[in-house]
Amino acid sequence: MKNLLDFFVKHSAWFVLMLYLILSCVLLVNNNPYQQSVYLTSANAVCAKVYEGMSSITDYFHLKGINNDLQERNALLEMELVDLRAQINDLKMQLPDTAKIQPVLQHFDFVVAHVISNSISQPNNYITINRGSADGIKPEMGVVDQTGVVGVVNVVGPHSARIISLLNPDMRLSCKLRDSEYFGSMVWEGGDSRYAILEELPKHMHYEVGDTVVTSGFSTVFPEGIIVGTVEGRARNLSDSFVSLKVRLTTNFSQLGTVRVITNDMAEELKKLEQNPLDSARRKEEKP
User: Fold this and answer.
1) In angstroms, rounded to a whole number, what is the distance separating the alpha carbons of residues 172 and 153?
2) What structural domains does the chain harbor?
3) Is the pTM of the predicted complex or chain greater than 0.85?
4) 100: Cβ contacts below 8 Å, ≥ 6 apart
5) What are 12-37's pLDDT values in tens digits?
């Protein structure tokens, strides 16, 4: 305690000087409008910088939530866009009777998930996401991101799932050119992750470079009209009747982050309908 008192006594002149300086500044600001305005302007500028820094830090920690919200909104808009296109096609076929048009995608929904593992250079590529059966994920559900088709779920755990990537030769996707009724099978043959082949198209079908390739809708996995890629040109002829097209995929598989798993509440019913009991009975009758 004695040392502290000695310190104050020894430097008392400096403390008195600092006190006078502070009092002088307070009196100067309070009694002079110009100095007061300068002080307030400077103080406001400093406070604004501090608040801006704090806001930047807070916004950074909220980026994940904001990104999830944007993904969900984008998914809703994409589904609505596909639905509108399908309804337009129906209207073209059913005019003038349009009163019975129903939303084509009313049975589809989605679950947002994050990619935790991904491969693009293996002979058979797979993707792992952080959603599973506890989130309503089931095998044979389609997966997309904000730019196009990603793959199909094939193995599901409680809190994770594995996806057969479109970059997998075992994955065959029914696709067609937009505004065309001709469809074929999209398959990846290895090599460049940016390209795939659309096979089994009629040779007489008209196409142009840059045409958009979309899902055909001939399954319970993907609704019709989800973008897959664009035509780069002819790949090869399978026969005298069919042709294959080289397609540039719109999905950037090397930068997958957030994906959406498409659910279809009509999937089970449609699968049962596809298992025609008449076919089963006919097979039994044909047995010796």
Assistant:
1) 13
2) 2-60 (no CATH), 107-265 (2.40.10.340)
3) no
4) 94
5) 788 788 887 787 777 766 777 665 56
- Token reading at 174: 């029914």
pLDDT digits (tens, 9 = 90+) for 162-220: 999 999 999 999 999 988 888 899 999 888 999 999 998 888 888 899 999 999 888 77
CA-based end-to-end distance of the chain: 111
Residue with tokens 């005019």: 95
Conformational region of residue 140, where left means phi above 0, alpha means psi within -120 to 50, and beta covers everything else: left
The two three-digit tokens of residue 102, written as one number: 């129903």
